[in-house]
């Protein structure tokens, strides 16, 4: 099922949560709505679900205008941030709920068979008689998904699906959700504030800020060609340096860095820690190391430029560097935006 | 502090002296303030022997008072339960102008003396009151009859159910209802299979409190009932009448009945809770397979 949002807007009291968002999600696509808190991403998801109604604009499911269809009839599967499992029902009863209340009458046997099938799909066979309080967070998450899938939704919507889980479980589930989505081919949107999760999981990432889409595209598009300082900063650690652009390039540390399409004058240069190289040849930006943080796969060096600006860079674990060392930074890749 | 026993600092405030004093004070106060009067009621009720007790209970006026009290509860408690659930639902699941005002209004009976409520009803439905003449000409008797008693009882106990439900339903939020609706459940279905089961203990507790208060209400009912022996006397009013007539044993016998009614209510609540608790902690018999690589609770 294709979804299309046409300049959708929503205001809560005086807070303009969503300010004219247009978006198309192709059938079977897995799309992430990524943004900081308050960027309107959850509100958009809830409007697609029918849990909120847009003040302006329209939402289409396929060719049908779904803007005013109530959630009950919209045929979406919604997975809530905190799962919203019915605590007084067993896992099996939770999954069966949608089929029991459905207008399509199913026999008890059919429902039981479908519950077993779904439990198998989410790899929870044998846990059907447990109560939600008796299973782990990751298992609850999967029950919530199975419950949403039980009613054969046209669209699957997930609100911060892994927000409440610890890091290891989160990575596991991410992989698994991707597999299930591919297997079922169901159009899926999920909301997250975690850029790694969005880039990992989604076919396409939609980045939101202050109720508007700031950039959308594949993870390659948004990571390699961020279109604004906001996107650059939001997608990961980055160093901010002042620069001056002249003739679509800027000179830093004796090297020219291309700045295509940036007008002449003051500019902001963003460079990721891994895109800075630590060298001892004098051709570069001089810096002094203030601290070294060791990580499993790299060393993070905190340094200070002679101008006093702090920078962070990642070097290989073998690099011999210590506090107080002097050296030079090479910028290998950078994003430059006019100030 | 001996060497064999390593020094183990107690938790904050947990020293034997403090613990013993606190527990002692609570037990003592509980015994003096709550238990002793209850014991005295039963001791006094049976002071003239079992036969005198039975005779006092079997007196037609007493029997009628018991009957009237039970009927009042049977009418007032269900209505107030429905009102309380509706009010709690409205307040916690919807946003609308005047929501805070509604909460305040629901709480008014808590802060107003029941006698005031009774007098207010007198002014509204009494012969000299607002609707008095109209009601009299239509031959509808509200005051000094069952309707007045029920109305006064309902006024006094209106907040009980809502007050128990609102904090809980507020804490639970709207997620469960939204989930149920997104799965295709109708409003009624959502209410009966999702909302109600999750507030059942609070609801039960509210109903029990409401019932206890309806049966025990004195002030408001005393104003509107007219205290007609054998006709409009509820148990609490009857007890007072007997007491003023120097029929101490009879008064205590009737009081013991009222106490028993209360105790039965509380026992019923505990039993129902037990049953529910049994289901909640039910664990699957089949050995569960636990996913590897994932922490389990």
Which features does this protein show?
heterodimer; A: alpha+beta; six-stranded mixed beta sheet; five-stranded antiparallel beta sheet; 9 helices; B: about 300 residues; mainly alpha; MetI-like fold
Plain-language structure description:
Chain A has 339 residues and is α+β, with helices and mostly antiparallel strands. Helices cover 26% and strands 35% of the residues of chain A. Chain A has helices at residues 41-49, 71-74, 91-101, 108-121, 137-149, 167-184, 195-201, 219-224, 229-235; strands at 3-12, 15-25, 30-34, 56-61, 64-65, 76-79, 155-159, 187-192, 204-209, 212-217, 239-245, 249-252, 255-258, 265-271, 276-279, 285-294, 299-305, 310-315, 326-331, 335-338. Chain A has a six-stranded mixed sheet, sandwiched between helices. Chain A has a five-stranded antiparallel sheet with strand order 15-19-16-17-18, with no helix packed on it. In chain A, helix 6 (167-184) links the parallel strand 7 (155-159) and strand 8. The radius of gyration of chain A is 24 Å and the shape is elongated. Chain A starts with a strand and ends with a strand. In chain A, 41% of the residues are buried. Chain B is built from 14 helices and no strands. Chain B starts with 15 loop residues before the first helix and ends in a 17-residue tail after the last helix. The longest helix of chain B is centred in the first third of the chain and has 34 residues, at 60-93. In chain B, helix 2 crosses helix 14 and helix 5 runs parallel beside helix 12 (219-225). The A-B interface holds A 49-51, 70-74, 76-78, 80, 82, 84-88, 97-98, 101-103, 123-131, 134-136, 138-139, 147-148, 150-151, 166, 168-169, 172 and B 175-176, 178-186, 189, 193-194, 197-198, 280, 282-289, 291, 293-297.
């Amino acid at each position: 099922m294709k979804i299309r949002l046409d300049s959708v807007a929503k205001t809560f009291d005086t807070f303009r949560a969503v300010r004219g968002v247009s978006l198309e999600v192709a059938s079977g696509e897995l799309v992430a709505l990524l943004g900081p808190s308050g960027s309107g991403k959850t509100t958009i998801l809830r409007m697609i679900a029918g849990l909120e109604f847009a003040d302006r604009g329209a939402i289409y499911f396929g060719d049908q205008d779904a803007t005013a269809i109530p959630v009950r009839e919209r045929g979406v599967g919604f997975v809530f941030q905190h799962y919203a499992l019915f605590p007084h029902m067993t896992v099996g009863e939770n999954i069966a709920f949608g089929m029991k209340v459905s207008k399509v009458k199913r026999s008890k046997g059919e429902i039981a068979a479908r519950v077993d099938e779904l439990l198998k799909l989410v790899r929870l066979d044998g846990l059907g008689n447990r109560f939600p309080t008796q299973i782990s967070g990751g298992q609850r998450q999967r029950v919530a998904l199975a419950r949403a899938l039980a009613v054969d939704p046209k669209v699957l919507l997930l609100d911060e699906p892994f927000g409440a889980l610890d890091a290891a479980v989160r990575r596991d589930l991410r992989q698994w959700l991707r597999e299930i989505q591919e297997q079922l081919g169901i159009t899926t949107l999920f909301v997250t504030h975690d850029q790694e999760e969005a880039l990992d999981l989604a076919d396409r990432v939609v980045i939101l800020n202050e109720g508007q889409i700031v950039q959308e595209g594949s993870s390659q598009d948004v990571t390699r060609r961020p279109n604004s300082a906001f996107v650059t900063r939001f997608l990961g650690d980055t160093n901010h340096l002042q620069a001056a652009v002249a003739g679509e390039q800027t000179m830093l540390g004796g090297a020219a860095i291309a700045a295509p399409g940036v007008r002449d004058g003051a500019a902001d240069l963003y460079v990721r820690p891994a895109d800075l190289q630590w060298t001892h040849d004098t051709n570069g930006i001089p810096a002094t190391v203030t601290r070294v943080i060791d990580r499993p796969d790299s060393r993070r060096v905190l340094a200070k430029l002679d101008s006093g600006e702090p920078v962070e860079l990642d070097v290989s674990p073998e690099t011999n560097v210590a506090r107080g060392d002097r050296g030079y930074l090479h910028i290998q890749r950078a994003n430059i935006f006019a100030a | 502090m001996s060497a064999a026993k390593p020094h183990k600092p107690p938790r904050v405030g947990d020293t034997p002296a403090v613990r013993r004093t606190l527990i002692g004070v609570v037990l003592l106060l509980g015994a003096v303030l709550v238990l002793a009067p209850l014991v005295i009621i039963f001791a006094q009720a049976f002071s003239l022997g079992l036969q005198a007790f039975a005779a006092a209970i079997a007196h037609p006026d007493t029997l009628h008072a018991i009957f009237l009290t039970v009927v009042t509860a049977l009418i007032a408690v269900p209505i107030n339960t429905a009102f309380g659930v509706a009010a709690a639902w409205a307040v916690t699941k919807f946003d609308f102008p005047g929501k805070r005002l509604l909460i305040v209004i629901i709480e008014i009976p808590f802060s107003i003396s029941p006698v005031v409520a009774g007098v207010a009803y007198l002014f509204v439905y009494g012969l000299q009151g607002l609707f008095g003449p109209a009601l009299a000409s239509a031959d509808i008797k509200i005051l000094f009859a069952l309707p007045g008693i029920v109305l006064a009882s309902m006024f006094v106990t209106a907040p009980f159910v809502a007050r128990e439900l609102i904090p809980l339903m507020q804490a639970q939020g709207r997620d469960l209802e939204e989930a149920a609706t997104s799965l295709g459940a109708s409003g009624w279905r959502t209410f009966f299979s999702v909302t109600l089961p999750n507030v059942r203990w609070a609801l039960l507790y509210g109903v029990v409190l409401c019932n206890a208060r309806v049966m025990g209400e004195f002030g408001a009912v005393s104003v509107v009932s007219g205290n007609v022996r054998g006709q409009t006397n509820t148990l609490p009013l009857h007890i007072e009448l007997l007491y003023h007539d120097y029929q101490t044993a009879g008064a205590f016998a009737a009081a013991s009945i009222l106490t028993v009614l209360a105790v039965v209510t509380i026992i019923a609540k505990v039993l129902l809770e037990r049953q529910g608790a049994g289901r909640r902690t039910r664990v699957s018999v089949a050995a569960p397979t636990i996913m590897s690589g994932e922490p389990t609770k």
